[in-house]
Design goal:
The protein is an alpha+beta fold and about 210 residues long. It folds into two domains: about 150 residues, Alpha-Beta Plaits, CATH 3.30.70.1290; about 60 residues. It has six helices and seven strands. The strands form two sheets. It has a five-stranded antiparallel beta sheet with strand order 6-3-5-4-7, sandwiched between helices. Helix 4 runs antiparallel to helix 5. InterPro entries: RAYT_transposase (IPR052715), Transposase_17 (IPR002686), Transposase_17_sf (IPR036515). This is Transposase. Pfam families: Y1_Tnp.
């Protein structure tokens, strides 16, 4: 099992409303998910409105089921421009909105345990960072359908145990998550650097950063 990258000569399958949106069997993904209160509602609403406006300005209907496929077909310059929306969302997450329960070491350890549980069995776990209100992870070597199930399993398993630890109930994770199909080895190393740099403003003990040996 190893990390494989996007090959344009191999067919790509597309899913909507789940992770990942773009897939090649056994490919590698950069995945982010966040706690339910990590982004203020007005910020989230404005971000979605700005993204929808950008899509329409580029001839893409955001209500179209395959709008992501249409974004991928845009010229490289336009595609890079669209990625600015993901970066803007990541900056909001780094502002540490919400209760930030993953700052608690025991809660972060629950997420880490979920990520490692089937490593090298069902998937190959890459570098990850568990931040106070979100998680970044690189993962590969797993077929699409199993990937969809695994991400939901990580979230469901960790949410139930963190809620139990905190003595609370209700939704812990935001339903939607973000994914990015890793297109090259260079992109892979760039994402590893991004993960490593994500916690730089935090104090030791407020995050978990793990590096694949």
């Amino acid at each position: 099992m190893d990390f494989r990258f996007f090959d344009p000569s191999i067919p790509v399958s597309v899913t909507k409303g789940h992770l990942p949106h773009w897939d090649q069997e056994g490919a590698t993904y950069f995945i982010t998910w966040r706690t339910a209160d990590s982004i203020p509602k007005d910020v989230w609403t404005r971000w979605r409105w700005q993204r929808s406006r950008w899509l329409r300005e580029n001839g893409i209907d955001p209500e179209d089921a395959d709008w992501r496929k249409q974004v991928e077909a845009l010229p490289e310059e336009r595609h890079r421009d669209f990625r600015s929306f993901s970066r803007a969302l990541e900056r909001e997450l780094d502002s540490c909105h919400g209760a930030c329960p993953l700052r608690i070491p025991e809660c972060a350890a629950i997420v880490a345990g979920a990520l490692h549980y089937f490593d090298a069995d069902r998937y190959l776990l890459g570098d990850y960072a568990i931040m106070p209100n979100h998680v970044h992870v690189l993962v590969g070597g797993i077929p699409r359908d199993q990937m969809l199930q695994q991400v939901e399993s990580w979230k469901h398993w960790s949410a139930s145990r963190i809620n139990r630890h905190l003595g609370r109930r209700g939704r812990f994770w935001q339903d939607e998550s973000c994914d990015h199909l890793v297109r090259s080895e260079a992109a892979f190393h760039k994402l590893r650097s991004y993960i490593a740099g994500n916690p730089v403003k935090l104090r030791p003990g407020e995050f978990v950063h793990w590096v694949r040996p």
